[in-house]
């Protein structure tokens, strides 16, 4: 039985690539630097932010970027330009919880980029049991060891878990850790043919399709 559903945040739980593209270019503008192209942003999407920035803006002062980013990030959050979780996605999480499954987040975001979603008054409270990010994991996707802390702390076995993500790197991490993987293609940033088919257990067109997809994965075990 699938006991734990582990969910990626960006372009899986909420669509963030477009907003993040604007945010990063906003910070670059404040530094007096030219904007990056959308193609470069998509090519580096899913990477740890500061690891991606030298490709997004060659020669960028990473220290200065890191200083300016948090305030700009908060502005975008306050304006509702980032991390808006649609009601239908929240309903999907509710179905998973009602089915007795534990919902966890695993993201490559820094702690400061995810902490607002873990606040007790956030819409995820009561739906998501825990979150794993740069602040409490030693490794980053696509390294399969990104799941080490989650598995150790929760006691779930890889066979009891499924990871839901939007990138080939998500699939590599999950497969290497022995987890099943569901590709969520809602953002349109990635196509299914970009994934290693041997690592994809199932694919969904939109996040609300997730509960039914997981029920299907569990169905053979019921017979």
From TrEMBL:
Name under which the protein is recorded: HAD hydrolase-like protein
Superkingdom of origin: Bacteria
InterPro entries in the cross-refs: HAD-like_hydrolase_sf, HAD-like_sf, HAD_2, HAD_sf, PGP-like_dom2
